Amino acid sequence: MRYDVLVPFTIADPFGNVQCAGNLQNRVVKSKLTGEYHFYYRIRNTWGVGGIGGIATSSFGDVSHFVAFRIDGLGTVHPLFVRHTPVPGEIEFSGLNVDCRKHQESQFILIKRPWTTTAYAGGVTRIFSSNGYEVSVPTVQP
Fold this sequence. Notes:
mainly beta, Immunoglobulin-like
């Protein structure tokens, strides 16, 4: 494992009422088999009155990649959809439906790219509430 950090987040409405808060686990693993980097994201330690509908992470360019979620680990909720957004290099996972009232957590979301160079700071991941609010947090990027 090259990088594993919990990034705290809070999503509030325009009046400052917390909709959902928790941690985004941002993990980067270098494959022993291929030498490629795997980028993992997971919503953890949630609380609040709302939910998380999805995440979008940037700096993945237009090179082909593999996206998935891990069913062999922690968490119980996985995204239903994945797409490239109009933002260049951004990948969005939606239909996540993490209920913060029940303190639910997502399974690991995976983006695997054909890179063997190191990951570095400077990426951004947007976390969306199920009612349309969002927050951006710093993450590593390829």
